[in-house]
Amino acid sequence: MIDHAGTFGPMNWYARGRRRSTEKWAANAIQAARSSSGADQIPANPVEAIAFHRDNTGKELPADTAAVELLNLLRPVVAVSNFIVFAALALAQHRQWKDKLCGSDDADLHRFAQEVRRYYPFFPFVGGTATRHLEWAGHAFKPGDWVLLDLYGTNHDPRSWEDPESFNPDRFRDWQPDAHTLIPQGAGDHFTGHRCPGEDITVDLIKRAIQSLAAAPDLQVPAQDLNFSLSNMPALPKSGFILDPRPPVRR
Ligand code: HEM
User: Fold this and answer.
1) CA of 247 relative to ligand 1 center, distance in Å
2) E strands in 133-247
3) N or C: which end of the chain has fewer CB within 10 A?
């Protein structure tokens, strides 16, 4: 559903088919929660929180709406795995960081996770239409005009990032947080705009994964194709990223 969202034709139809069957699965999960636990209990998990959520008129959500809400939560959490693959790749290609991050403080993990989100591609851009006449940086927009915000380009813009094509978590050592330069998940303010509200969760999940990977001894990276294309949305190395947990055979 995530991998083929940016394609046209058969791959996109396949993605839509997957979406329909997953919506059915989620609707069943909502119904199962509703028939097995009481609405007056404290929800034990996200499925129950959504299943028993009441709208402003006091009614539970229709099962198909609740199913879509469940997937709106599940889908982006699963999507974080793409960043985790790139974090594993970065650890393998910058071995000095593996030792540095093993048992290191939270600040190093945070810098590494931020650099993974800046350096590697995910969504190339977000689009929207102007709702009123406006002017920005000398460009005039009328209502309905399309605007594309270049997320990947902004994360690699040499005006904001020194040597942007090198992977360097230490660049975040003295970085002053700026809502308009590090924008893999949208720009601006979470509260007043559409910037991704899951950003903190994303950083946290990447940090936890890096911590485990950095602590794992003897992870081998067998021969594979680690190239990725910026034309895929979202991008991933061709082989995914295969790790072999067995210690190397000594000859
Ligand atoms: C791989 C990790 C993720 C990426 C790359 C990502 C990216 C994005 C982007 C680009 C947007 C649109 C921003 C805009 O229009 O300006 C967005 C919106 C959103 N994201 Fe994420 N996201 C991720 C993870 C998450 C997580 C973990 C959650 C929640 C559990 C989440 C929930 C949302 C929601 C609810 C919106 C819509 C916000 C709105 O329209 O006001 N995302 N995300």
Assistant:
1) 38
2) 134-136, 139-141, 146-150
3) C
